[in-house]
């Protein structure tokens, strides 16, 4: 199985930020507050563990200057001194999550009724906005972010007979790792197999891109999603979480 360093690097590459500030092997990523993935501080080498208090303070100030809550993504690549410094800040636990991984299966085929479109297309962005409940500002940030996605990538939509979106997802292959993202099902359509159908299409499409592996991020307390992904061949790889500070 691939290492956490390979996975975390691929996860970051699969979902770009609009702005990135680097400090050694630390990154502070900014995207107007859209998702922790593109709006957090993260370390990509546990050996880069010196002077964490001052580095966190400096980078957190950059978020506050943009009127954003500072976030720190704590992963297996976060060094011991940095973990201790983050814990000492007393920032609130935010999005305790798993990374699950799977091997590609080239025998899979996509189920019928799933549209596979460019993530930059209006149809995919509109489906995501409706299902996620995005307002105009968030829709605009999403449009800017998907324009920066590395290739190959694809958006997935399942619609009702009346054209209403029931489920949607995204998949990006970055650095040899296929990363399903933004998996969402309409609340009234959950438990009816739409999420599974979209994920089966994601898995079939991604296998055709010949990645080394697949990796997906899921909230620890999202038991239905964890169960779905495990039933599709994903298994636990490691945990991570965010710590969120105040804007002042």
Structure write-up:
By secondary structure, the chain is α+β, with helices and mostly antiparallel strands. It folds into 2 domains: 4-98; 105-211, Gcn5-related N-acetyltransferase (GNAT) (Aminopeptidase), CATH 3.40.630. The mean pLDDT is 97. It has 7 helices and 11 strands.
Which helices and strands, and how do they pair?
Blueprint: H1 4-14, E1 19-23, E2 26-30, E3 41-43, H2 52-65, E4 71-74, H3 80-89, E5 92-102, E6 114-117, H4 122-132, H5 136-146, E7 153-159, E8 165-174, E9 177-185, H6 194-208, E10 213-219, H7 223-231, E11 235-244
Parallel strand pairs: 3-4, 9-10
Antiparallel strand pairs: 1-2, 2-3, 4-11, 5-10, 5-11, 6-7, 7-8, 8-9
Q: Report the C-alpha radius of gyration, rounded.
A: 18 Å
- The CATH architecture of the largest domain comes to 3-Layer(aba) Sandwich
Structural class: alpha+beta
| DSSP summary: helix tally | 7
């Amino acid at each position: 199985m691939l290492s956490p360093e390979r996975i975390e690097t691929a996860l970051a590459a699969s979902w770009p930020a609009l702005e990135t500030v680097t400090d050694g092997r630390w990154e502070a990523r900014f995207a107007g507050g859209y998702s922790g993935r593109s709006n957090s501080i993260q370390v990509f080498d546990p050996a880069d563990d010196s002077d964490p208090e001052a580095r966190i303070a400096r980078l957190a100030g950059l978020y506050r200057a943009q009127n954003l809550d500072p976030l720190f993504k704590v992963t297996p690549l976060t060094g011991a001194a940095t973990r201790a410094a983050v814990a000492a800040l007393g920032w609130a636990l935010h999005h305790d999550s798993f990374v699950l991984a799977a091997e590609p299966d080239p025998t899979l085929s996509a189920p019928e009724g799933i549209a596979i479109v460019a993530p930059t297309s209006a149809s995919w962005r509109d489906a995501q906005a409706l299902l996620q409940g995005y307002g105009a500002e968030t829709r605009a940030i999403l449009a800017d972010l998907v324009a920066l996605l590395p290739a190959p990538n694809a958006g997935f939509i399942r619609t009702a007979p009346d054209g209403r979106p029931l489920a949607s997802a995204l998949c990006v292959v970055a650095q040899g790792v296929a990363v399903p993202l933004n998996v969402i099902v309409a609340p009234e359509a959950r438990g009816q197999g739409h999420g599974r159908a979209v994920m089966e299409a994601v898995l079939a499409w991604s296998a055709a891109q010949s990645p080394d592996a697949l990796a997906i991020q899921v909230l620890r307390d999202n038991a239905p999603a964890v169960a779905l992904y495990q039933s599709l061949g994903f298994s636990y790889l490691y945990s991570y979480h965010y710590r969120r500070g105040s804007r002042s």
